Amino acid sequence: MVASRTDSSNPARIPALGIRLIVLLFASIVLMVLDHRQNHLGAVRQAIGTAVYPLQVIVDSPFRLWEWARDSTADRNQLQLELSRLQAERLLTNARLQRMTALEAENARLRDLLEARAQVRDEVRVAEIMAVDANPYRHNIVIDIGEREGAYDGQAIVDVAGVIGQIIETGLTTSQAMLISDPSHSLPVEVNRNGLRTIANGTGEFGRLVLPFVTNNADIRPGDLLVTSGLGGAFPAGYPVAIIDTVNRIPQEPFADVTATPAAALDQVREVMLIWSSAQPREEKPGAEEPNDE
Amino acid sequence: MSRAGSAGRLPVILTIIVSLMLMVMPLPDWAMPFRPDWVALTLIYWAMMLPRTWSVGTAWMIGIVLDVAQGTILGQHALALCFIVFITVRFHLLMRVFPMQQLTATVFAILALYQFVLFWINGVAGIDAPPVKYWGPVISGTLFWPVVSLLLSGVRLRVRHGR
Hints:
heterodimer, B: globular
């Protein structure tokens, strides 16, 4: 804290203000260089982040309370309706799962025949997005799972419909994640129909991605599903990312102008799933809960 | 007027914490670019009224906390807040006697400067953001300034009479 001095004769003079300013400006610049260019300050961030955590919880709590109140006061009729809907859904999913088990077995057998590397299942865990706004200049979210639960930098985050983003900074109990719609986010994808590999970049809009490196003669058309290719190493392969929106072939340009709509509703989700892919073995921290294997 | 004992510090700290909470409070998408810089407004007020206790050092520390809470480059808000608080402290006697319109205009200029520093740091770091994200907070912050200063002067007067 700033030392409060006793009043001097001249009330307009604050002692050593200029010197303090210069020292602090210099300190900020050093911090920024260390943080941005060298990424040395993870521990410092984490320490201060732990102090900020109560603030985030307080801000988040009215929203949780509201949700809890809404859930616990929902009337009987509504609950029954939801129950029957869920039961119907479960029946459907179970039926699909049965086929899936058979297919998985077949897939494993075929892979065995081809002597390909066995596909290991990914571990997932549900996280909740905290009602906290992060960096105003970027598309970031804060989720309620941190390093204590085994989250790591670069970890993939998906929801029921598709890929959401990846973790860029882990705190002890919360993490910051960058959405795929952030202008500085790139994601290696492939077209599900024919395996054409390319890159999907964010645009700063929630509902739009661009594919800047698709050649004019590439086999790609509106309606194609893009899935993660797993080539970047961060994302496990095969998760849906987006659906091709428009393909605009410009004859004099080397690349076509292709846009896609993210499969996940990036600005509406509240629950997301963290993936521990087989490529990155999960480091179990003592005291962490067992994740639900899926 | 500008002297505050340790008893007077707690309310000020509380107002700063509230302003930090308002900074991370979720807003609907359309309102997000127009979130006033609550922390900047609060610090400008206290630097103007109690410059001996709340000055560049406080601004720097609060700035670091803000950087961590928002995930910006560590030191970005610290530098910008430090800078505008310095200017406020430098001219605090002048600003105190300004009528409200003139003071609001001054706050507009200070907030614009604040956003310019943030913009400039983002530019050096290669982070691109639409201009509305820089101008929105300046406009809304200026509009909210009379309310904020009224509320904070309520806090200040109560503390003074309480002692």
